[in-house]
Fold:
Amino acid sequence: MSLPPSRQSPALRRAPQALEVTLLASVFVVAACGLVYELAAGALASYVLGDSILQFSTVIGCYLFAMGVGSWLSRFFERQLPAHFLRIELLVALAGGSLPALLFVANAYMPGAFRLLLYGMVGLVGVLVGLEIPLVMRILKREVALKELVSQVLTFDYLGALAVSVAFPLLLVPQLGLIRTGLLFGLLNAAVAVWALWVFRHELRRFAAHATACALTVAVLGAGFAAADHITTLAEDKFYHEPVVLSASSPYQRIVVTHGRTGHKLFLNGNLQFAQRDEYRYHEALVHPAMAAFGAPRRVAVLGGGDGMAVREILKYPSVESVTLVELDPHMTGLFAADPAMARLNGGALSSPKLHIVNTDAFQWLQAGDDMSADGPPRVDGACSP
Structure:
């Protein structure tokens, strides 16, 4: 009769060490992937449905409830645990990895079904993710003492969540976009499945079938990753009813510019911000009454208005010596300064030597009491807030 791991000598326990480390590494990856799918669903819901607090709250609540259901269901998996873990990893990879792409397409072609699909997919992914960790713990139980098992698994689970919570808004979404981020982490889930296929190859009864499923999953997700730009363009062209000429995802919003018969239009999180045909009405009415009320202002602050349209109107006044534009999202000011078509719309206002751009929250900037544009005590003669 073999001794439990806690009572085995170091020589006997040395062999399973590699398996233990790789299983714990898979816990890190599994936790990271699960949180990415949750964050992607919340971000898409806030983009499409608005009210980010409500959407993130309901998505997170649904996801955590589904994880609880998955953890409860894991009790019914008694035999062939490595095979079940491999299959679940492949299902998570497909469902979670494709979640952003499917929701993008559904919003464009079936907007009425978006909410149902959103919570259906969040629930499905949550159940599958809830199954993963209990199965890993039961597999590891064969090699690790229970006390060490729980602490190690939870440590790697929380570390994976921490890594993704930092990388998602600062690196993943700005650099890859939501669709590619989802598919990339779907590939990571598939990689865990491939690893399980190799490590437990002697325990799997249908090795060839599992290997084929792994290969097909990786191929589907890889093809989706390569075609992510086409998927986004297809969905957004349908949703906005005009060709998309400029798009970007920032930590704060989805920025889309279309061009049709009436010129350019700017959309933030799917909501129209201005149309080229009549934007002058809004920006002239915003700027000129305020400027007239101050006579001949020399220094002006604009809170918001990263498209530069309000700044364009302000710079028409010869008395203006400096303009401070306070815009939270640097992607907005960057796009409307660098893109030739957008720069023509604002008359090159964002490249004016009189302009100083501050990318921060306008309320915090006002509380700080420093316009960051000149030495001496802060003083702003006029302010416009689009």
